[in-house]
Amino acid sequence: MRRRLSNPKAIAERGEEIYAKNRADLEAEHLGKFAAIDIETEGIYIGESAEDAFAAARAHAPNGLFHLVKIGEQGAFRVGYVADARVDWLFR
Question: What residues have CB less than 8 Å from 17, skipping those under 6 apart?
């Protein structure tokens, strides 16, 4: 029996390996969509949104471990941060 990964970094690395193996096909057919990648079975579940991809993945593997990517992008989401004391509207 294969040992189940529990380290988030290891899960992400495994998901990226699987994505890299399938990159050409995924980007040709599903550019801009989301993919939930089952790191144990290598199943790839596509959705228009992150929620759709994850729901499809959970329907097939309720106990699976998934890595989420936006196909053709560096990450699934973009996060920003502003370090400016004059910007106080963030906390109102």
Answer: none
Task: Answer whether 15's CB lies under 8 Å from 23's CB.
Answer: no
| Cα–Cα distance, 59 to 38 (Å, whole number) | 12
Q: With CA atoms as reference, report the closest residue to 5 among 78, 67, 51.
A: 67
Q: Tell me how far apart the alpha carbons of residues 82 and 73 are, in angstroms, rounded to a whole number.
A: 23
Contact 26, 71 (CB under 8 A): yes
CA-angle at 83, arms to 81 and 86, nearest 5°: 120
3-class SS of residue 30: helix
> Of 13, 22, 12, which Cα lies nearest the Cα of 71?
22
Around Cβ 12, how many Cβ atoms within 10 Å? Answer: 15
User: pLDDT tens digit string along 9-34?
Assistant: 888 999 999 999 999 999 999 999 99
If pLDDT is split at 50, 70 and 90, which confidence band does 38 have?
A: very high
